[in-house]
Amino acid sequence: MRRILCLGSTGFLGGHVAGQLRALPGVRVLGGGRGALAGPPGDVPIDVPIDLPIDLPIDLATISVRALADALRAFDPHAVVNCAGAVGGSPLRLAEVNTRGPAVLCEALQRAAPAARLVHLGSAAEYGVTAPGRALDESAPTRPPSAYGATKLAGTLIVTASSLDATVLRIFNPIGPGSPAASLPGRLAAELRRALPEGAEGVIRVGDLSAYRDYVDVRDVAAAVVLAALAPGALPRVLNIAGGSATAVRVIAEGLVAASGFRGRVEENGAGSRRSESVSWQRADISAAAVALGWRPEFTLAESLAALWNEGSLIPAVAAGTVTSGAVASAAAIASPVAASPVAASSVASPVLPAPEVAASPVAASAGAPPVGAAAVPAAP
Question: What is the number of domains present in the chain?
Answer without folding.
Answer: 1
